[in-house]
From TrEMBL, chain A:
It comes from Fundidesulfovibrio magnetotacticus. PROSITE patterns: ABC_TM1. Its main location: membrane. Part of the binding-protein-dependent transport system for glutamine; probably responsible for the translocation of the substrate across the membrane. Keywords: Amino-acid transport, Cell membrane, Membrane, Transmembrane, Transmembrane helix, Transport. It is a multi-pass membrane protein. This is Putative glutamine transport system permease protein GlnP. GO terms for biological process: amino acid transport. Belongs to the binding-protein-dependent transport system permease family. HisMQ subfamily. GO terms for cellular component: ATP-binding cassette (ABC) transporter complex. Residues 26-216 form the ABC transmembrane type-1 domain.
TrEMBL record, chain B:
This is ABC transporter glutamine-binding protein GlnH. PROSITE patterns: SBP_BACTERIAL_3. It comes from Fundidesulfovibrio magnetotacticus. Belongs to the bacterial solute-binding protein 3 family. PANTHER family: ABC TRANSPORTER GLUTAMINE-BINDING PROTEIN GLNH, AMINO ACID ABC TRANSPORTER PERMEASE. Keywords: Signal, Transport. Residues 34-255 form the Ionotropic glutamate receptor C-terminal domain. It comes from the Bacteria. Residues 1-23 form the signal peptide. The lineage of its organism: Bacteria, Pseudomonadati, Thermodesulfobacteriota, Desulfovibrionia, Desulfovibrionales. Residues 34-256 form the Solute-binding protein family 3/N-terminal domain.
Length: 231, 271
């Protein structure tokens, strides 16, 4: 067993060459996951609400967006943004930025569907009652429907966010120096301890995802207090 | 609909206009003050992450440093793999590719190459005392190589009945060899030597067979910029003539290193 290799490189796995070089390793993975979660939530929310709209010019594009993205492997989406975006926009995105955009675009399609399901699962009377008080459709959506729907969606969101966190590992294909990439680098240099290295990496991913799940469980418990309807 | 079409046309024109006006790469680099090189980050001893400093180091990095110094700008390193290196170069993500890339005729359509800066040939890494002694012994067996590499295609040409299993990097292919998933790993001798001596028991492995193909490495540069390519070529020649090349070579492949490969070829020097 060569646990010494893991031990000697642990700092590299955790934050890469920082502060003498660019940030990498687990720190990079977490940053990418956070940026991805933030972006995917808002974009997904917008796309999901558009998908629910009765206006054709709003719901058709979002339907196409959702179906195209959901029918494409994430690896492809990452490659798209890395190699296609510069050809289309005329400028280059640094690799980690294009990876984050790819993660946001990919995950938001799933978030959009969660949003749609969450809104549709509310009793019809909610919207009718809200409209009855004189709110416009948009106001009813923002103040009455979405707050309730989002609460119910938390478990599905968490599922998707945990999945996104693990998906950051795919960015290694375009050379982003995140956790998986640092593991490959060390493994390829030493070639003695693949088992030890990849077990360590797996544990690190698990810890991050576990913390995320635990955090959301608390969030859910706390918000539940304010919502008597489901109890 | 008409409006949409108009908007699309406008968008296309904008995109075209946004494409940078063509300036020579040399002026470009000097203006930026940074020379960005696409290098390998898990390929001993060409380019890999040093355990202590956590920086990418290696033979190709030293060559790049020399060129950057000559240009009078800072060197920035960007890791590439065999499958991303050409795309990143043509897109301008990197100014040059120094990533164990063989100068091949059919790659000339996409990028230009410098003169040869490293000469090697494709051979086989096998278990010592195993059944494989030459490429012919691979008939019906599995051999490991890397996606997008020339080795992949050459070994198939040399022995059509072999099955090539492609990995992301060579050390991964070596791992497969260790675990018996493939019977041999094939690529350039220089890389095989690096893999063999990084192992716990180098004596358990053997590099066998004649050269399946010669593998002259060239630095990849963008197409149709002869001023830039000339500069790179002349700098390489200057390195060779002044002995700077030998110094770097000895540092990574000399007798005192674990990757010892005698320097048996000479660089093409223009009169």
């Amino acid at each position: 067993m060569h646990w010494d290799i893991v031990w000697n490189n642990l700092d590299y796995f955790l934050w890469g060459a920082y502060p003498n070089g660019p940030l990498g390793g687990l720190a990079m993975s977490i940053l990418m996951a956070l940026a991805g979660i933030f972006g995917a939530f808002w974009l997904g929310l917008v796309v999901g609400v558009c998908r629910l709209s009765s206006r054709k010019w709003l719901n058709m594009p979002s339907l196409v967006y959702i179906e195209v993205i959901r029918g494409t492997p994430l690896l492809m989406v990452i490659f798209w943004f890395f190699f296609l975006a510069p050809a289309v926009f005329g400028f280059n995105l640094p690799d980690w930025q294009s990876a984050i955009i790819a993660l946001i675009v990919f995950t938001s399609a799933y978030i959009a569907e969660i949003v749609r399901a969450g809104v549709l699962s509310l009793p019809k009377g909610q919207m009718e009652a809200a409209r009855g008080t004189g709110l416009s459709h948009t106001q009813a959506m923002i103040h009455v429907i979405l707050p309730q729907a989002l609460q119910n969606m938390i478990p599905s969101f968490v599922n998707q966010f945990v999945s996104l966190t693990k998906d950051t590992s795919l960015a290694y294909i375009i050379g982003v120096n995140e956790l998986t990439k640092t593991a490959t680098q060390v493994n390829n240099r030493t070639m003695k301890a693949p088992f030890e290295i990849f077990i360590t990496i797996a544990v690190l991913y698990f810890v991050v995802c576990f913390v995320l799940t635990e955090f959301s469980r608390r969030l859910e418990a706390r918000t539940n207090r304010y919502q008597a309807r489901n109890r | 609909m008409k409006r949409l079409a108009k908007a699309l046309v406008a968008l296309m024109i904008l995109t075209l206009a946004a494409a940078p006006a063509f300036a020579g790469k040399l002026e470009d680099i000097k203006a930026k003050g940074v020379f960005t090189a696409g290098v390998k980050d898990s390929q001993q001893p060409f380019g890999f992450v040093d355990e202590k400093t956590k920086q990418i180091v290696g033979f190709e990095i030293d060559i790049m440093q020399y060129i950057a110094d000559k240009l009078g700008v800072k060197l920035a390193l960007k890791p590439v793999t065999s499958s991303t290196r050409i795309g990143m170069l043509t897109q301008g993500d990197v100014d040059i590719v120094a990533a164990t890339m063989t100068h091949k005729k059919d790659r000339e359509g996409q990028v230009d190459f410098s003169i040869t800066y490293f000469m090697t040939g494709q051979r086989l890494l096998v278990k010592k005392d195993g059944p494989i002694k030459s490429v012919k012994d691979l008939a019906g067996k599995k051999v490991g190589s890397v996606k997008g590499s020339t080795s992949e295609q050459n070994v198939k040409k040399a022995e059509p009945t072999t099955t090539v299993v492609s990995f992301e990097t060579y050390p991964e292919a070596f791992l497969a060899l260790k675990q018996g998933k493939v019977e041999a790993v094939t690529t350039d001798e220089a890389i095989l030597v690096g893999i063999k001596y990084a192992d716990d028991k180098p004596e358990a492995w053997d590099i066998v067979g004649d050269y399946i193909s010669p593998e002259p490495y060239g630095l990849g540069v963008v197409e149709n910029d002869s001023k830039y390519r000339d500069f790179i070529n002349l700098t390489l020649m200057e390195m060779w003539e002044s002995g700077a090349y030998k110094k770097i070579y000895d540092k990574w492949f000399g007798k005192d290193t674990k990757n010892y490969i005698p320097l048996t070829w000479t660089m093409e020097l223009w009169p």
